[in-house]
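Notebook entry, structure prediction.
Reason for the run: the old model in the group folder had no record of what sequence produced it. Starting over properly, with the input documented here first.
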Amino acid sequence: MPGTSGCSRRAAPPGWPGVRRGWTGPPAGACWPEPVPHSAGWYGTRDRWGGGLYTPDPPARPGPAGGEEAPVWFAHAGAAVTLPWLASLDADGLRAHCVGLADTLRERLGMPPAGSAIVSVRAEGAADRLAAAGITAAVRDGAARLAFHLSTTPDDVEAAAAALR
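New structure, fully documented this time:
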């Protein structure tokens, strides 16, 4: 039986009605309980300490236990500390920070402001130039896509602008 585990990007944290999930993401590995079916992890196998560790596609334990995955204690410890802090932030201020940095990059590149924390740069070699400067960008439909977050700084904006000029 396939296991059920995974994270929903749409669901709000339990007990936090009205909080948008996108601003309250816990550390990787911790998630809100909204199962997504997939195969069992090694923790849900019949022989988790034996062949379950090294056998491709090991048989799952019967019933719900077959969907168990290894505990991610450090992720949950991190979530316990970070989520109350994130919830205490001013959402409008956080959005203004992220959008402000993105619009600053747009200005440096001669693009109009867009009011979004995401900047897509459609220029020859943009992703390669960003990568050479140590900046991670996704490539979507041929454009380098930069997303600005809480941890992004004005120095990051200047570095991206310099790489793209």
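Summary: The longest helix spans residues 91-108.
The old model has been moved to the deprecated folder.
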